[in-house]
Each structure stands twice: as structure tokens, then as C-alpha cells.
């Protein structure tokens, strides 16, 4: 067998043949579904007669093939592992094929598969080729008609894209529905669902007065978990009208919840398919975080109707065209309807931990990659989140109004087309008159740029000189980097007044908050008329996805935490202050020196706790220490034990020093009101629960009782899960064990709650956890075939329990590698995602490096899917 080969952006050629219309008939059967396809095909005028017709196809058994009604002779075509070639075809013709596929055996969850007894599809990126022979590429767009034939009893509900146009009975207790989708679409947006589903229905009137029916389809037992998704959908539809002028374009919009799904959700035209975890909520089963995630994902998929579906990607290298833009859109939506600063803090905290790590590792790639082996490996934080940061920078650079003009232009000019990132940025350039030539490097250069900044205040001349230097580290395949255009939003906060000072730069007055443009490798900015010594507040709102170093003293940081007018930077100053203290403690731990708590950190927390908070959600964020993963991200060499010990020490130190404040905060924010996923309530809960977590860090006897009461009160899942987690992660197994048991028994019937039950247990910091992981893998509620279960148990263990995953004896690595090897056969996409923690071996000490590489090599010795192959090769390169 030859090694999988990469494909290159530079090899892109427009298709020789296009499909203008696709007519499909599915005769559903779990083991042997028949798919008939009638394709209306035309040769592109630029291609000569005699150009063979090449169609993608995998795991299809061809039963019949005909052109314009004439069956083909065996020597007129050829079927291979990857598809079908017809040697000679007319200029325009009808191609009829019939194939057989086996949904039941499809454990990869790509193409047509079964989940909890229902049929469903996943076609992005290249799943449609597992359904029928087709030019399975996004630049081939056709209108679709789909007839679904199913068993009247087993599949009373038969869904596909568009509007239902015909239905009827068939012999043998069968029935059918025909769907017509008038909007030309690429094959990756095709969807089919068939099963015994129930619906919740609502309606939406669009801005031009059209009525749209909204449906959410679920298994019967989940009918009471759809309210929040429906409300979120309606809010998203309104928001997209108001913010982008985008109206929905069909009479029907459907969401279906499925239990087995590789990703969060999928934007298929008119028929979004969701991982049940990304759509179902109930106060008793879902946490605040889950409610907010559902809101964001429902909006994200809905927004794709324009940014992705009406205007789609020319090829998969352009993936961030739809994903980066749509993530930016969903982030703005969530910011608008919740707390904007908190949303930004959460997004950036996640981004700087996970995307920075990706960008610094062996799989680092540009937001627009120039080659890949398996596109399924490129649904990454870089494509999604860094792509969104780039769109955010664009939006800030051109300003709100020009951005809207640019997006209007983009949607109008390219409606119904498959386009590139240049097309998008070109519209922004046209609408704003700005030049983005240098800016485009953000799309082609991998790696996180680092800015080293320093400043000097000249008292005599009332000047502040700020010097910025940028450098992007080498990444695989990109040893040299060019300077980027980096927008740095800033203010100068006067140390006397505690206020933002008016800014004058090169004679221009700029208000108290402005953006400077770093374009050179090194640049100096001279602010004049600076009446007092300032502390600079740099990169406000995280104005660019970079690492910023400035030699702040701890006093500077405490000052910024108290005075910065930018909520994000106020939070960030606190994080930086904690990181400095944590650094000392990590060093002390490594050197075997006694740890001492920095009184400045205690003081900063005391100030926070004792002020009247105007925003409780922000306060909760400010009271949260950087995660172990983010601390690790700052260290030259990751020492998981030292990091864990240092962070635990700070938590305990704060709890001891500020016990009464935490207790008071807990009590003040207790609330018996009926649960609502609303910002005000969520803020109170998060503040209360942060306080409880500090108290549990010292296992304060009052706190243990409060945690127990909070668990037993059973008021909502946020509180229950938090209390249970604190108990399970404490040494109080006398309370934790029975509580876990009760929880597990109460929710044995609910897979989404059982996922949480798994996650709570495998994040336990105690050293016995690996046995628990193994034990839980044998639990009847666990299954390697269900991606949510794999993520909840194995993924959570490997990614969120650093001290135990990185056990010095390598047992954590071994367990992960064993799982990857098994999953490689079942579900390559999930297997590849799971390998990630092992690929970061270079960040650890030599012994761990050897153990991690050993496991990667053990994986490499297997017969690998292209997905796992690509990752392991990069990791060992
Ligand atoms: N396109 C989906 C989204 O971001 C994600 C997805 C990719 C889902 C591939 C399934 C498979 O909204
Ligand atoms: Zn998306």
C-alpha cells in the first residue's frame, strides 16, 4: 500500500464537468440501502471533448450505470477505490447510477449512517462520495431533488434539504417523501434523516414578511429539551437580519438532534444536523455553559446559511472563509445578547490556551493551508478561531459601517458561487478603500507572532516612547517569517490620576483609546503631551492574536487591574499578575524550596472581593486563576507537577487569607429563583461557585457542608455538577462516593448527563484516577463507537487532567495510544483528534518525551487511516 499523498492548493483547477441538477432516490435499508442518482452534467466550455468524466466514490457497490438512458458497456468506464471514470461522455448528458451502501457498518459517521436506530448523513467535507458517485467538491453546485423511501413504522419521518413536495404510500408498508431544494448547493451540504422522531414547531416572520416554519426533531424522550435551542434560533434569525441584513430563504428550517456525531453540528441547507450535546438543554441536565454553547452553535449553523451556503468555498483550502467568518459572527451574536466583555474573556482565554498550543506544535498550519493529506484533520482551532480573529481585525480596521458595506457586497456579488478568501478580503478593501496586501500574510503564515514591547517616559518633555518589535517563530515548512500588519489597540493610564490620558501621536490627537499599526519588524511610537507617567494598556480587547510581552512590574499590573478602562485588559492584568506569582512558585517547587505566597496577589484579590462589583460575571472571571494548561503554555518546559502544586498552593493561600470574603460572596449570591439561562443569574451562579471552589481548596468544613447541600438541593445542573465535581476532586470520598452513585443512578437513562458523570470522575487530580478511567471504559454506558463518550472519558482525561495523563510511568500515554489504535479502525476522524496531546511531546522533559514518542511510534506501526497517519507523521517528523 502506498502512503497517502498530500494535495496542494496550487494544483487547484476548475472542474471539467459541472452538475446543474441532482435527483436522488434512497431506498433505505440498514444493511443494503439503494441510492439512485440522476445527474444533469455539462462539460465546461474550456475543456475539450474527450475529457474523461471523473467522479468520486468510496465503498460503493455499483449496480447500474447509464448515460442518456443507455447502459454503459464494461469497457466504457472503470471503478477504483476512490471513484469512477467514464472514458467518453457527450457535451451535456444525463448520468444514471445505482449503488448499494451499508449504513449499519458505517462507524466512521461520514456518509449515510445509523445513530440510535435512525438514518442520518454527514457529508462535510468528503462524505457525499460514500453515498453516490459524484464530483464531491464544493465548487460544483446543483439544485437537488431527493426522494426518501423508508419503512412506514421504523421511519415515519423522512427528511432532506429544502421543501417537501410530494409524499405517498408504497407497497410492503413502505412510504416516501420527495424534497426539493431550489438553491444550488455543493454536495457537502446534502442531508437526509429518517427515523422515529418527534418535532417541536415554531414560526418566524422574516423582515420582508415571509413566514418560516421552524422545527426541531428529536427522540421522544428529549421533547422537553428543545426550548432553549428554539429561542436561540429565533434570536439568531433576527440578529442576522438586523446586523447583516440577511434573511432566511426557504419556507422551512429544520434542526435534528442525533446522538452519534463527530463534531458539534452541521449547517446542511435547511436541515441542520446537530450533535445532541449541542442542541438539547434542560435546567436539570445542562449547565449554564452548555446553555450558552447551544445558543452559540445554533446561531453558528444558522449563520452559515449565508456565510457558507449561499456563498460557499471554492475548495477546502478556503475552509476558513466560511468558518472564520461564521465563528466571528456567532461570537458577536453571543456578545450582543449576553455580557460582551465576559464573552471576549472566555473566548480569548480558550484561544490563548488551545490555539497557541496548536500554533506552536508540529501540526501548526496557516489559516489557509497550502497542502493537506486529509481535510478532516483541518477542522482546527487555527481555521476556526484564528480565522475568526483575522475577520475581527478586519472589522476593527475598516470600522463597523465599512465592514457592513463589505459584507453586503460579498453576499451580493458572490451569491450562488464558490469563492476564495481573496474574494472576501477584496470586498472589505473595496468597501473601505484600504489596502490589505500585507494583512493577507495573516492567512498564509503559521505560528503565533510575538510582540516584545517596552516604553520610556520622559518627564522633562512629557513624552512617552513605545517601542514594539514583532517576531513570528518558525513553524514546520515555514522557517522564515515576514512582518505582519498588527493592529494594537492601546491607552496610556496615568499613574497619578488613574485615568486614560489623551493621546497625541505625531501631532495628531487621538482620544484616549486608539489603534496603532505595527507593520515593520521594529517600530517606535512617540506620544507627546503626556502629562504624567503612564502605564500602557496594550492590545486592548485582544486586538490581534499575538503574544505580547511588556516588562510590567507587579505594581503596574495591580494598578491596571484596578484602573484600566478596558474590561478585557483589566482581567488580563490580573492574569499576568497571577502568572508572575505562579512562576516563582513553580521555580520554588522545582528547587525544593519552601513556597511563599505573594502578598500582592492576596491584596489584589482582596480589593476585588471587597469592592461592590458592577458586573458579577466579570468578577467571577477575575477571581479565576489561569488554568494549568495556560500556565503550561507560558513555560519553556512544561512541568505538570510543579504547575499543579503551584496553582493549588495559590488557591489554598487565597482561601486561607480571604476565607470570610469567599463565604460572604457565596451566601450573597445564593438564589432560589427558578432556573433561567439568563446573564444576571448565570453571573451570580458563577461567582458563587468560584467562591465555593476556593473554600473547597482548603476543604473548609463549612464549604464541604455547603457543597453537599448544593448537591442535595438539586436545583439545577450548574450547581449540582459544580458541587459534585468539588466533592469528587476533594479527599472527602465519604461524601463524594455516595453522591456520585446517586447521580449515576438518577441519570443512567440520559447519555448527555452520563457524559458529565464520566468527565467529573476523570478530571480528579488524585493518582488513583487512571484505574478509574479503565474501570469506566468498561461501564455499560460507555462506548468507543460514540464520539461524545470518547470525548467525555478519554478526551477529558488526556486534555484536562495533566498530572495524571503525564504520569511519569507513561501509563496515561499508553492508555491513550491503545484507544487511538482501536479507534483508528472504527472512526479515523475521532482517532486523529484524540492523538493531539501526544503530538506535543517536545514541550516535556526527556523521559516523558521518550515515552510519548514511543507511543506515537507504536501507533505508527499500525495500518493507519490517512487521518491518523498525517498526524503521527507530523508529530514524529
Ligand atoms: N461545518 C460544521 C460547522 O462548523 C462543522 C463540521 C465539519 C461538522 C465537518 C461535521 C463535519 O458548523
Ligand atoms: Zn461552521
Keywords:
877 residues; alpha+beta; Immunoglobulin-like; eight-stranded mixed beta sheet; 33 strands; globular; binds phenylalanine; binds zinc ion
As for the number of domains, it is 5
Radius of gyration: 28 Å
Residue runs with pLDDT of under 50 for 5 or more positions: none
Mean pLDDT: 98
Q: What's the multimeric state?
A: single chain
How would you sum up the global shape? globular
Give the class from helix and strand content and strand pairing. Answer: alpha+beta
Q: Tally of extended strands?
A: 33
CATH homologous superfamily (4th level) name of the largest domain: tricorn interacting facor f3 domain
CATH class of the largest domain: Mainly Beta
| CATH architecture descriptor text of the largest domain | Sandwich
User: What ligands can be seen in this structure?
Assistant: phenylalanine, zinc ion
The CATH topology of the largest domain turns out to be: Immunoglobulin-like
Amino acid at each position: 500500500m502506498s502512503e497517502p499523498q498530500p494535495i496542494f492548493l496550487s494544483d487547484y483547477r476548475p472542474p471539467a464537468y459541472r452538475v446543474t441538477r441532482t435527483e436522488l432516490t434512497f431506498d433505505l435499508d440498514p444493511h443494503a440501502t439503494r441510492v439512485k442518482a440522476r445527474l444533469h452534467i455539462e462539460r465546461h466550455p474550456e475543456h475539450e471533448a474527450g475529457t474523461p468524466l471523473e467522479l468520486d466514490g468510496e465503498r460503493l457497490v455499483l449496480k447500474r450505470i447509464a448515460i442518456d438512458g443507455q447502459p454503459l458497456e464494461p469497457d466504457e468506464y472503470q471503478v477504483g477505490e476512490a471513484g469512477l471514470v467514464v472514458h467518453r461522455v457527450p457535451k451535456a448528458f444525463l448520468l444514471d447510477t445505482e449503488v448499494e451502501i451499508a449504513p449499519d457498518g458505517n462507524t466512521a459517521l461520514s456518509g449515510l449512517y445509523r445513530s440510535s436506530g435512525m438514518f442520518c448523513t454527514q457529508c462535510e467535507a468528503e462524505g457525499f462520495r460514500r453515498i453516490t458517485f459524484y464530483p464531491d467538491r464544493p465548487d460544483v453546485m446543483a439544485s437537488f431533488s431527493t426522494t426518501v423511501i423508508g419503512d412506514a413504522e421504523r421511519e415515519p419521518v423522512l427528511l432532506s434539504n429544502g421543501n417537501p413536495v410530494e409524499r405517498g404510500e408504497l407497497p410492503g408498508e413502505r412510504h416516501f417523501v420527495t424534497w426539493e431544494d431550489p438553491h444550488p448547493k455543493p454536495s457537502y451540504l446534502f442531508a437526509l434523516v429518517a427515523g422515529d422522531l418527534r418535532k417541536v414547531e415554531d414560526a418566524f416572520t422574516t423582515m420582508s414578511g415571509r413566514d418560516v416554519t421552524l422545527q426541531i426533531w428529536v427522540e421522544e424522550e428529549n421533547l422537553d429539551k428543545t426550548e432553549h435551542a428554539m429561542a436561540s434560533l429565533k434570536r439568531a434569525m433576527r440578529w442576522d437580519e438586523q446586523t447583516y441584513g440577511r434573511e432566511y430563504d426557504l419556507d422551512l428550517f429544520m434542526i435534528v438532534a442525533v446522538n452519534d456525531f463527530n463534531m458539534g453540528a452541521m449547517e446542511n441547507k435547511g436541515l441542520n444536523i446537530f450533535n445532541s450535546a449541542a442542541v438539547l438543554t434542560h435546567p436539570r441536565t445542562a449547565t449554564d455553559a452548555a446553555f450558552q454553547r447551544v445558543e452559540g452553535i445554533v446561531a453558528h449553523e444558522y449563520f452559515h446559511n449565508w456565510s457558507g451556503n449561499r456563498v460557499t468555498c471554492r475548495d477546502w483550502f478556503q475552509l476558513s472563509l466560511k468558518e472564520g467568518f461564521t465563528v466571528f459572527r456567532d461570537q458577536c451574536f453571543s456578545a450582543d445578547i449576553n455580557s460582551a466583555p465576559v464573552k471576549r474573556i472566555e473566548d480569548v482565554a480558550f484561544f490563548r490556551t488551545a490555539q497557541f498550543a496548536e500554533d506552536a506544535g508540529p501540526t501548526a498550519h496557516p489559516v489557509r493551508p497550502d497542502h493537506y493529506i486529509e481535510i478532516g484533520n483541518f477542522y482546527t482551532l487555527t481555521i476556526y478561531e484564528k480565522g475568526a480573529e483575522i475577520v475581527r481585525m478586519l472589522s476593527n480596521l475598516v470600522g463597523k459601517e465599512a465592514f457592513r458595506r463589505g459584507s453586503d457586497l460579498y453576499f451580493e456579488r458572490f451569491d450562488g458561487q464558490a469563492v476564495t478568501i481573496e474574494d472576501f478580503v477584496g470586498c472589505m478593501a473595496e468597501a473601505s478603500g484600504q489596502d490589505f496586501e500585507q494583512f493577507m500574510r495573516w492567512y498564509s503564515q503559521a505560528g503565533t507572532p510575538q510582540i516584545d514591547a517596552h516604553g520610556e517616559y520622559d518627564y522633562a518633555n512629557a513624552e512617552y516612547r513605545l517601542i514594539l518589535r514583532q517576531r513570528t517563530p518558525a513553524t514546520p515548512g515555514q522557517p522564515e517569517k515576514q512582518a505582519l500588519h498588527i493592529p494594537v489597540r492601546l491607552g496610556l493610564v496615568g499613574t497619578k490620576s488613574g485615568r486614560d490620558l489623551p493621546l497625541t501621536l505625531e501631532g495628531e490627537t487621538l482620544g484616549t483609546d486608539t489603534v496603532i499599526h505595527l507593520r515593520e519588524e521594529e517600530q517606535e511610537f512617540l506620544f507627546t503631551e503626556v502629562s504624567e507617567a503612564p502605564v500602557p494598556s496594550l492590545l486592548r480587547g485582544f486586538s490581534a492574536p499575538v503574544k505580547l510581552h511588556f516588562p510590567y512590574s507587579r505594581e503596574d499590573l495591580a494598578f491596571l487591574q484596578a484602573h484600566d478602562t478596558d474590561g478585557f485588559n483589566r482581567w488580563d492584568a490580573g492574569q499576568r499578575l497571577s502568572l508572575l506569582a505562579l512562576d516563582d512558585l513553580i521555580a520554588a517547587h522545582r528547587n525544593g524550596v519552601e513556597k511563599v505566597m505573594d502578598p500582592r496577589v492576596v491584596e489584589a484579590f482582596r480589593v476585588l472581593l471587597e469592592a461592590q462589583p458592577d458586573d458579577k460575571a466579570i468578577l467571577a472571571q477575575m477571581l479565576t486563576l489561569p488554568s494549568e494548561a495556560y500556565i503550561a503554555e507560558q513555560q519553556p518546559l512544561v512541568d505538570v507537577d510543579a504547575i499543579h502544586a503551584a496553582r493549588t498552593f495559590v488557591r489554598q493561600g487565597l482561601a486561607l487569607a480571604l476565607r470570610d470574603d469567599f463565604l460572604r460572596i457565596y451566601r450573597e449570591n445564593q438564589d432560589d429563583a427558578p432556573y433561567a439561562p439568563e446573564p444576571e443569574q448565570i453571573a451570580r451562579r458563577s461567582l458563587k461557585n468560584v467562591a465555593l471552589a476556593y473554600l473547597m481548596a482548603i476543604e473548609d468544613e463549612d464549604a464541604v457542608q455547603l457543597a453537599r447541600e448544593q448537591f442535595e438541593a438539586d436545583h439545577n445542573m450548574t450547581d449540582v455538577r459544580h458541587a459534585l465535581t468539588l466533592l469528587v476532586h476533594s479527599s472527602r470520598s465519604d461524601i463524594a462516593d455516595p453522591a456520585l452513585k446517586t447521580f449515576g443512578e438518577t441519570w443512567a437513562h440520559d447519555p448527555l448527563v452520563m457524559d458529565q458523570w464520566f468527565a467529573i470522575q476523570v478530571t480528579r487530580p488524585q493518582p488513583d484516577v487512571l484505574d478509574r478511567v479503565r474501570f469506566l471504559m468498561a461501564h455499560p454506558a460507555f462506548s468507543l463507537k460514540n464520539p461524545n463518550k470518547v470525548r467525555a472519558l478519554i478526551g477529558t482525561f488526556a486534555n484536562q487532567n495533566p498530572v495524571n495523563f503525564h504520569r511519569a510511568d507513561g501509563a496515561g500515554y499508553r492508555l491513550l495510544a491503545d484507544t487511538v489504535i482501536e479507534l483508528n479502525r472504527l472512526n479515523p476522524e475521532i482517532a486523529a483528534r484524540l492523538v493531539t496531546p501526544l503530538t506535543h511531546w517536545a514541550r516535556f522533559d526527556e523521559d516523558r518525551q521518550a515515552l510519548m514518542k514511543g507511543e506515537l511510534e507504536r501507533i505508527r506501526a499500525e495500518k493507519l487511516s490517512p487521518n491518523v497517519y498525517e498526524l503521527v507523521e507530523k508529530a514524529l517528523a
